[in-house]
Amino acid sequence: MPLNNIQLHPFLLADLYRNSLIETGEVSNAQETDLNDPVQEKTVVKKIDSLIRDPMAPDSYENRWKYLGDYKKNILFIVRYTNATYLPDEQLNFLTSILGACKLSLGDIAILNLATLPAGVYKTISEQFKSRVTVLFGITPTDFAMPVNFPEFQVQALNNCTFLHTPVLEQLETDKVLKSKLWVCLRRIFGV
């Protein structure tokens, strides 16, 4: 494990920096703070916990799964690229042009790379993100562990979300027929 990725539990941080990490505001002198006192210890730990979020906490999906975009319109694009954090630059440029045609931007969506997540995450992702539109690029509903299976380029409604699955972005970019099928689906989904 690289040194830059070490994560310390808030209790350990509180113990390591008991006199210098934060001021509780309850005492005027840090020397007077007694972390053996359970009331003061809880206050310090609570303040540290608010500064350092546990990446596996159930309410912090932003920290659990890294994604590209601001996700302002609850639109989720899911890709799988093992050699990139999110997706390669060429595919990002192509996806950005698709978004522009749909009158959207990276600020409206989130791009989640499935290669960085465990298998069978449909239920967890749908519960955490609560997206209204999810597009699977190069990922079948079966790969995503969805309870239904549907063909490529079929707009599918499920659990208050509209799903679409397509071939990988590389194929869409080079094949005019596939690109036109995608455009028909996106026009239907986004009303453009």
Structural write-up:
It contains seven helices and six strands; from the N terminus they run H-H-H-E-E-H-E-H-E-E-E-H-H. It is α/β, with parallel strands linked by helices. It has two domains: 3-51, no CATH class; 65-190, Uracil-DNA glycosylase-like domain (Uracil-DNA Glycosylase, subunit E). It starts with 9 loop residues before the first helix and ends with a helix.
pLDDT average, as an integer? 78
Tally the beta strands: 6
CATH fold-type name of the largest domain: Uracil-DNA Glycosylase, subunit E
- How are the strands of the biggest sheet laid out side by side? 1-3-2-4-6-5
The CATH homologous superfamily of the largest domain is named Uracil-DNA glycosylase-like domain
The tally of domains stands at: 2
- The arrangement of helices and strands along the chain is HHHEEHEHEEEHH
Question: Radius of gyration, Cα only, in angstroms?
Answer: 22 Å
Number of helices: 7
Query: How would you describe the shape?
Result: globular
- What percent of the residues sit in helical stretches (DSSP H or I)? 25-40%
The biggest sheet, with number of strands, parallel, antiparallel or mixed sense and barrel status, is: 6 strands, mixed
Q: Determine the oligomeric state from the structure.
A: single chain
CATH class of the largest domain: Alpha Beta
| Low-confidence spans | 28-33, 41-63
Q: Note the beta-strand portion.
A: 5-15%
